[in-house]
User: What shape does this take?
Amino acid sequence: MKDIVVGIDIGGTITKIGLVTKDGQCLRQNSFRTRDFPVFREFLQNIKTHVEKLQDEYFEPVNILGFGVGAPNASYHRGTLEYPANLAWKGVTPFVEEFQKLYDVPIKITNDANVAALGEMIYGNAKGMKDFIVITLGTGLGSGIVANGELIMGHDGFAGELGHFAVVDEGRLTGLGVKGGLEAYVSATGLKRTIMHMLGYYREDSRFRSIAFNDLHGEEISKAAEEGDFIALKAFDYTGEILGRALANFVTFSQPEAIFLLGGLASSGKLIFEPTIKYMEENLITVYRGKVKLLPSGMEEKNSAILGAAALGWKDIL
Assistant: This one.
């Protein structure tokens, strides 16, 4: 029988589930649409159904030692989801308390970006590092901060909400209503909003002049930029400028050895990394210049969220 931890990543669109061994091997995984289950208890029951299916599909019995869960606005200390902007369950949801009724094993939950930081530290490119920041670029922007080898949770379990750090005066609203918040500019959604802004600001031809906002996709924007589309290139440069300036500010409070970018927007590679590095270095104070690496995740994109969540579950077992 193989010992595993179940890693669960709850996203605004998709929930991913995987069976993960101690050494970070994802034996089996599957997913379902989060929004198909607006009733929370039905959502939990659906997780159980998927876990049982994964167990049945694997060729040998597995022993579930625990669960690690990453989710927006999750409190590690209280085991709750609290006022998440991109989920159907409003207010405070007692995730661990309710899920414990289905499984009598340790269940840990924290912010989705915090589990990404743990995953990077245990399974990714941050092995051996004691000071680093992980920025997740998905529907929104999340962040996990490790200092002196410890994940910064904060007094209430909500430390590191850098996506809601105001970077533009009277700017766009984030999902939590923060004016000019970082995730409104630097995320898959933020990039789409920037495309629309650039279409109004510039007059150059672009394939996006005939595409509606809801039909825009990050992969298409990346492809257009690679093919030289003026609007797409401007959008990436502007996104990198906003992110680079913000990262320069973040460096001052913990002086990380490295900052890792992962998630859909990070998969655009040099299109986002090159302008971000440029503007970060321009805005760093002298004592930090040339000392902070900007790196991609060392975890496979398809497994990174699951591995990060599983790392949280394994953390107290290892």
The mean pLDDT is 93. Helices lie at 40-57, 95-99, 112-123, 188-201, 218-226, 230-254, 270-283, 304-315. The CA atoms of residues 247 and 256 lie 10 Å apart. The two ends are 18 Å apart (CA to CA).
